[in-house]
Specification:
The structure holds 2 protein chains of 2 kinds.
Chain A (H helix, E strand, L loop, with lengths): L4 H11 L4 E7 L2 E6 L4 H10 L7 E9 L9 E9 L4 E9 L5 E3 L8 H12 L2 E3 L45
Parallel strand pairs in A: 2-5, 6-7
Antiparallel strand pairs in A: 1-2, 3-4, 4-5
Chain B lengths: L1 H4 L5 H13 L4 E5 L11 E7 L2 E8 L7 H5 L8 H5 L6 H16 L5 H29 L3 H22 L19 H26 L2 H7 L7 H6 L5 H4 L7 H4 L20 H25 L18 H6 L1 H11 L9 E7 L4 E7 L8 E5 L1 H6 L2 H5 L4 H11 L3 H5 L1
Antiparallel strand pairs in B: 1-2, 2-3, 4-5, 5-6
Helix pairs in contact in B: 5-6, 6-7, 6-13, 6-18, 7-8, 8-13, 13-18
Classes of the chains: A alpha/beta, B mainly alpha.
Chain lengths: ~170, ~400
Amino acid sequence: MALENTAIQEKLAATFAGEVFNFQQERDIFSFEINANKNTAIILFLKNDPDLRFHFLTDLCGIHYPDNPVEKQFAIVYHMHNWYENKRIRIKAFINGKNPEIKTLSNIFLTSNWMERETYDFFGVNFIGHPQLKRILNMDEMTSFPMRKEFPLEDGGRTDKDDRFFGRTIDNC
Amino acid sequence: MSELLLPPEHRYAKIIKEQLNEDGNELSILNLGPTHPATHGIFQNILLMDGERILDAEPTIGYIHRAFEKIAENRPFYQITPLTDRMNYCSSPINNMGWWMTLEKLLGVEVPKRAQYLRVIVMELARITDHLICNSILGVDTGAYTGFLYVFQFREKVYEIYEEICGARLTTNMGRIGGFERDWTPKAFELLNTFLEEFPPAWKEFENLFERNRIFIDRTVNVGPISAEKAMSYGFTGPNLRAAGVDYDVRVAHPYSSYEDFDFKIPVGKSGDTYDRFCVRNAEVWESLSIIRQALDKMPEGNEYHAEVPDYYLPPKEDVYHNMESLIYHFKIVMGEVPVPVAEIYHAVEGGNGELGFYLVTDGSRTPYRLHFRRPCFIYYQAYPEMIKGALLSDAIVILSSLNVIAGELDA
């Protein structure tokens, strides 16, 4: 593969010293974390740099980590793809759990419009500058954000599916 | 009139009011959907119309949202396949296999060559049915019912093959970690061979009915075109992107399940209009048929249909009753006590509509910590309002069916 991980890492480290960290090859994808405040600058750089050319935003989604410290309770995960060199990368930006917000990518990739709406819908992450940040799959009247871990899948009063009956407690399942 | 249809705070209400003041002509609102016979699924579009022309559209989706990602977080891994069936239900085996391959990547399972080839065959069959439905329904929407009636029986034949392989027809829930749940019967191969003999002449005739048909060409050429740059920015993948002239195909970019062993072309279009999308799908059906033939020719001898991974692959039921080890494995798998590494996996397959991605985050427990489906329909459907701007209402219907938007995949 022509585009080496080290080349990406060096380029990013030279331009965004301290904002990009935790580089690692995770199975078949090169991944790293970024400072959430710099997300648009870094992604625009990755897209427009003549060597990196990550011109395709494959996927954008959120993850909830309720057990993390409060400033890292949500993660926004971007998967980007360079079709010229056929290289994928994964970018993670951790954001605050109390007031989750991050800048929108909708000026960079048109596709992020609905992906961000979906993430807002399920996690309540506020994408600053998004042209139409409203619910997309759930109904507009809904008040909670269902993909957060504290949101129960079904009625909490149900006892017929209690894990205790299978010799298992919440802790080891 | 419009006040009756739109709440006054809707942005179209303001546009209609201002337009009326300017030139005295009233713009109108048309609700296309949610349940409209021509949209083949539950989509709502509020169209702002000037006579027959569409000025703007506002899509509403989520009518059949079933919270698959949330359900998946509460289910053991092998119980998630039935959820993937229900995404793109026109080609569920591709979704099933994509999910198993994601798990195999997570667990480091090496699938035997023969099982990989069998998977390729069933995935290509699924692609054929997917494209067959899309193209023949596109014909129906332009007023040509005959082609649809003519080729639709072949979907039935493919479903008979599925039935022989796994017992189900539409929502297949096919395969296991490491391969298939049982070997393919001789009957399945027999049905497959009959299909390979009978289908190509019918498909040829279907093509002849449409590709040089004056009416069809008038209805589709230059209808809903999209440029390659726009398509990539909108995240298009699959036939819809290739119709715009970009030769991106996951089967070639990141070969999975031994796709690198087969020789096939990636058909591309030029203008990204409805006609090109139709032609790209037609050509892909021929390539799929060729891949199936190659896979049958190259099929390794023997009857291996799954990997030897007792930790994840259910033992035969007879052994569970008579053999202690099998009983233990059976119990552990069913109770979800199998070792799962902590990892983050992204695996993509070329679905009927484009790159179908599975982003799986595990924390070592019996269920995924987070599972996100990259659903191609959801991603490219957001380009729909832009594609129908300035088009006629009847064109909007044709564009929608040529994009092959499947409600199940759109809403997950």
